[in-house]
Design brief:
globular; seven-stranded antiparallel β-sheet; alpha+beta; 4 helices
Length: 228
């Protein structure tokens, strides 16, 4: 049922001014998106331990391109990919802009989605999140791929982990690292991927609480002429 603007104004004209202002503000905000930080829900990952790493343990992205990883999701969407990255030449005042492509059929296969570019400052060493504008639909149980690209700036290292020899520990059995476009079955990139569950912003929640308080007081306060 649609409410005619005249009916809304006529109804509000009989409401105390303070409550009018609160209700109007409430509806203005309630009809807008309510973005928040969101909660990271992890699906596939090669490790849960993060932090800085020695540069010797990383592969330089520009020297090993195309470089990336295959993985087999169990969820039906991919919303982010987290990687361990490091400035290969810290101290020269240069950072870098990086991005990640989600692909199907191979490390150089068709691109399904490209994450928003991320700027990493000089000397950066640690985990970085690459977020896709919207969760990309995938089929659980099917192998997908992502490759990492430096769009501009300094040389950047990407952490790879693994046994390094036949019979060694495989950090992630659901996929493998690719370097120079070739598979490296004994290694995996350090990665975590999954979806982001949006959370309401704190301002939006406060406004909802305030509106609820006004409504409760109005219904349970001293007797007065009904205005609704």
């Amino acid at each position: 049922m649609k409410l005619h603007p005249f009916r809304i104004e006529s109804t509000l004209s009989r409401v105390p001014y303070g409550i009018q202002a609160a209700l109007l503000l409430f509806w203005r905000i309630a009809l807008l998106p309510a973005p928040g930080q969101g909660t990271f829900v992890y699906d596939q990952q090669s490790s849960t331990t993060s932090g800085s790493f020695p540069l010797a343990a990383g592969a330089i992205i520009q020297h090993a391109a195309p470089i990336g990883q295959s993985f087999t999701p169990s969820l039906s969407a991919v919303g982010f990919i987290r990687l361990e990255l490091a400035d290969n030449n810290p101290g020269n005042s240069l950072g870098a802009v990086l991005s990640v492509d989600l692909r199907m059929s191979g490390i150089s296969g068709p691109i399904l989605s490209t994450a928003a570019p991320v700027f990493l400052p000089d000397g950066f060493n640690g985990p970085a999140n690459f977020l896709f504008g919207a969760p990309e639909a995938v089929t659980p149980g099917v192998t997908y791929y992502f490759d990492v690209n430096v769009l501009g700036g300094d040389q950047w290292a990407l952490l790879a982990i693994g046994g390094g020899e036949p019979g060694g520990h495989d950090p992630y059995p659901g996929g493998m690292e690719f370097a120079h476009g070739w598979p490296s079955p004994l290694f995996d990139l350090w990665f975590r991927e999954g979806i982001v569950v949006p959370e309401p912003s704190s301002a939006w929640l406060l406004l909802l609480g305030a509106a609820g308080t006004v409504w409760h007081r109005r219904r349970n306060g001293p007797a007065a002429t009904r205005w609704w």
